[in-house]
């Protein structure tokens, strides 16, 4: 049992706290749960963990739909380390504490005439959480959000606090930009921004076969391109966006259409399909016709354009494959969905990301297509998904895919070592910075070290 003698730590600790991720698919009860307010608090927590040889995990918004943040040891909630430390308008950079939320950062930057170059589908995550898993948006010439980081400060077990950049501790820098918390705790981050800009987006429907015939031209037809496929149909929507200086053109929202029908009624009907799964294709077709079949054009501030409503909790799986494998992967997925009597939810989301040199980034040294699948959990109730997941992962493996680290997957350490040229170097660095494995949890032991005896790489197949 841990005895806390430090008066300051007693003020920021909580007991018997159950942590659950946003989707309510993973949860844990850490032995101690801290809410530090400054770097000194975190240093004291690490000293306590060393004294009692306890595992430590830092958590942000908890949006990762996997057990990457879970621990039975000490959990550090970074929410109160959320300050915007410095905005340099001339150099277009911002320095923030690791727990700052991206949505708040977006608002702050906009007031200073700045913006992030690209964003993911949501902005509820903490900065450190988004970086640690290489959260990404879409745009074949735009990298993931970690590529926007120019400096960071990392608290390690063996070397204390170290500053990292392309010019200082470069190896640690390239590794820590996608480290899942395995190297230490990120304390603050410096991000390269650009002048605030507007995006003009066009969204329209197109048949999947027509998209596959013209895939290369579609991918390169705008700065940012996203495709949604509606399984069990040929229907897709394409979203394209480019920078513009045109006046705002904001589509008026309808509470009845966007909330009553598209959220509440849809969730109610999804719940019914849990008992009658064969009705899923009909529901998907109706939702497409009602909400997505008509073209839409919007001109708005960039950060308001990148994000969209993810609706309600969901199981989700996503992999990055080499860009040239996109057509093959979608054809295989289409064939499987239509030939196995399994009824799955929309959308299958297809996005495109530029290559980078971050050691464990799924886009390391190659332009990639991210393909993500979901199964909604209406009212947080379970739905069958594992047969779908098993088939999807088999297709992704056949296309030389790499899983998105934030999401649940069955890639083994041996497989990951073959897929990532810098995998061994990352493991060596991890052992150097964290020789006693303080920052490792079951997720990291499983996927980086192959140390989980109960892990079965055929997990989804074994539990259909």
TrEMBL record:
UniProt keyword list: FAD, Flavoprotein, Membrane, Mitochondrion, Oxidoreductase
Task: State whether keyword Cell membrane applies.
Answer: no
Source organism superkingdom: Eukaryota
For this protein, the record's InterPro entries field holds: ALO_C (IPR007173), FAD-bd_PCMH (IPR016166), FAD-bd_PCMH-like_sf (IPR036318), FAD-bd_PCMH_sub1 (IPR016167), FAD-bd_PCMH_sub2 (IPR016169), FAD_lactone_oxidase-like (IPR010031), Oxid_FAD_bind_N (IPR006094), Sugar_lactone_oxidase (IPR030654)
Residues of the FAD-binding PCMH-type domain = 26-196
> Where does this one sit in the cell?
Membrane; Mitochondrion membrane
What EC number(s) does the entry state? 1.1.3.37
This protein's GO CC annotations:
mitochondrial membrane
This protein's cofactor list reads: FAD
Tell me which Gene3D superfamilies the record gives. Answer: 3.30.465.10, 3.30.70.2520, Uridine Diphospho-n-acetylenolpyruvylglucosamine Reductase, domain 2, Vanillyl-alcohol Oxidase, Chain A, domain 4
Query: Which GO molecular function annotation, any one, does this entry have?
Result: FAD binding
| One Pfam family from the record | ALO
Q: In which pathway does it act?
A: Cofactor biosynthesis; D-erythroascorbate biosynthesis; dehydro-D-arabinono-1,4-lactone from D-arabinose: step 2/2
Q: Report the catalytic activity.
A: D-arabinono-1,4-lactone + O2 = dehydro-D-arabinono-1,4-lactone + H2O2 + H(+)
Family assignment from sequence similarity: Belongs to the oxygen-dependent FAD-linked oxidoreductase family.
What is the protein name stated in its UniProt record? D-arabinono-1,4-lactone oxidase
